[in-house]
Every structure is written in C-alpha cells, then in structure tokens.
Amino acid sequence: MTSTKHQPARAAYQAAKLPKAAKVEIEAIAIVGEVQDM
C-alpha cells in the first residue's frame, strides 16, 4: 500500500512470557534534533 500521508510507526509482538514477570512491554522511538516535514 502506497500513500502520500505520513503513517505512524508501530510494532506488534506476541510473547508467551515477558522477562522478570513483567505485565507490559514498552517500546519507544525518539528523534534527536530538528524535524523537517518532507
């Protein structure tokens, strides 16, 4: 699917068991510096 709209970044994982009996897993994506719209 090709689109000119900016799409949000996302990830999905399935895990039978998280380490250290964690209840949730958090993933972060960050940008350092000035953001310019293309």
From TrEMBL:
Entry-linked Gene3D superfamilies: RutC-like
Domain of life: Eukaryota
Residue ranges crossing the lipid bilayer per the database entry: none
Pfam families per record: Ribonuc_L-PSP
Family per record: Belongs to the RutC family.
Protein name: Uncharacterized protein
Organism: Geodia barretti (Barrett's horny sponge)
